[in-house]
Amino acid sequence: MQAFHDLVRDVPDFPRPGIMFKDITPLLADARAFGACIDALCEPWRGQGIGAVCGIESRGFIFGAAMARALDAGFVPLRKAGKLPPPVVGVDYGLEYGLDRLEIGSNALSPGERVLVVDDVLATGGTLEAARRLVERLGAEVMGASVVIELAVLNGRGKWPAQTPLHTLLTY
Ligand code: AMP
């Protein structure tokens, strides 16, 4: 099996000049590597009573749904504005340029439910932090987050509460 690192493709200047896009599609396409990746992502969360995995649109859906199955948890999508049918709860968050918004179904989580947040890439950390706030707005408990790739130079981890576990598989 190829190492995970070798199955992530660097794409310079995509989708905008200056961005080094991390393309995880070669990793997804490799059956053994994808399976091992999901196993490694789930490992810290086994036996933690995770009731729901919240995946962030859109690549967080791929990893999050597979993890939900492996952890015997439900899957809940966190989506960009206007994609989920009402009723929804949303939070706005800052991007490098402008604002974005994440939404969740108002009844998608139960109060006190133990939730894991999942995405593919941690860059500036704004998206993951918005996801955390959204889950807490519904009264659920954020047990932690799992992200496949951490771009350490952008220090997204600095936006995440230090006392809440944040697991990443690959660091660049
Ligand atoms: P941020 O809010 O800055 O941490 O950005 C994280 C979100 O943007 C994730 O949902 C990623 O899918 C996406 N993203 C940010 N930077 C990259 C990158 N270099 N390669 C791939 N996806 C990225």
Describe this structure in words.
By secondary structure, the protein is of the alpha/beta class. The chain contains four helices and nine strands; from the N terminus they run ββααβαββββαββ. The longest helix is centred in the first third of the chain and has 12 residues. Strands 5-6-4-3-7-8-9 form a seven-stranded mixed β-sheet, with helices on both faces. The two termini are 21 Å apart. It has one domain: Rossmann fold. Helix 2 crosses helix 3. The site of adenosine monophosphate has 16 residues, from strand 2, strand 7 and helix 4.
Keywords:
34% strand; binds adenosine monophosphate; 24% helix; 172 residues; Rossmann fold; alpha/beta; 4 helices; seven-stranded mixed sheet
Which cofactors or ions or other ligands sit in this model?
adenosine monophosphate
Q: What's the main sheet like?
A: 7 strands, mixed
CATH topology: the name is Rossmann fold
- CATH architecture heading: 3-Layer(aba) Sandwich
The overall pLDDT, averaged over residues, is 97
As a percent range, the share of helical residues equals 10-25%
Low-confidence stretches: none
| Percentage of residues in DSSP E strands | 25-35%
Number of DSSP helices? Answer: 4
Order of helices and strands: EEHHEHEEEEHEE
- Cα distance, first to last residue? 21 Å
Strand order of the largest sheet: 5-6-4-3-7-8-9
* Shape type: globular
Work out the number of β strands. Answer: 9
Radius of gyration of CA atoms, rounded to a whole number? 15 Å
